[in-house]
Amino acid sequence: MATHAAFLGSALPTPTLGTSPRRSHRFTIRAQAADPSDKSVEIMRKFSEQYARKSGTYFCVDKGVTAVVIKGLADHKDSHGAPLCPCRHYDDKAAEVGQGFWNCPCVPMRERKECHCMLFLTPDNDFAGQEQKITLDEIKEATSKI
Ligand code: SF4
Questions:
Q1: From the CA of 87, how far away is ligand 1's center (Å)?
Q2: How far apart are CA 146 and CA 142, in angstroms?
């Protein structure tokens, strides 16, 4: 089970999940400073909802985590033309986009349902919520406080 996901980069969205009710795991997500277009956020929001349904996965119990990841994907879509995973460091983002391995949904997710960003969580994950939906307002509200 993924217990730690870190967006490599600087500043911004820092939703922190506290202790799991069942286990004492703790993780923090730090996202890159990003201000993606509303259009790309909406595209990635819809994609995330559809892919959660298709893959039988759920958003994090803390929607702030979901919101930050969606905004990170949207930022990469704006800046690099593809939703490159926002939870990793890349020396050459353009080359990574071209290879496609970490374009969302990445290969580990497609092959094994492993999403280290905690955007798509299998039901047995301690941090999985019960929802496969998130509104644009939820995304904006969750990311405006951080
Ligand atoms: Fe990143 Fe893969 Fe999760 Fe998409 S599915 S957010 S690319 S880890």
A1: 8
A2: 8
Looking from the CA of residue 88, the nearest atom of ligand 1 is 1
Instruction: Give me 15's structure tokens.
Output: 């939703």
Give yes or no for residue 59 CB within 6 A of ligand 1. Answer: no
Q: Judge if the beta carbon of residue 97 lies within 6 A of ligand 1.
A: no
* 73-126 residue pLDDT tens: 999 999 999 999 999 999 999 999 999 999 999 999 999 999 999 999 999 999
- Report d(CA 43, CA 41) in Å as an integer: 5
Q: What is the pTM of this model?
A: 0.82
- Residue whose structure tokens are 């496969």: 132
Contacts of 48 (CB under 8 A, 6+ apart): 59, 66, 69, 70, 73, 119, 120, 134
Partners of residue 69 on adjacent β-strands:
none
Which residue, chain included where needed, has tokens 């400073």?
A: 33
**Is 115 a pocket residue for ligand 1 (Cβ < 6 Å)?**
yes
Distance 117 CA to ligand 1 centre (A): 6
Positive or negative, the CA dihedral 94, 69, 38, 50 is positive
Please state, in angstroms and rounded to a whole number, the distance separating the CA atoms of residues 135 and 115.
21
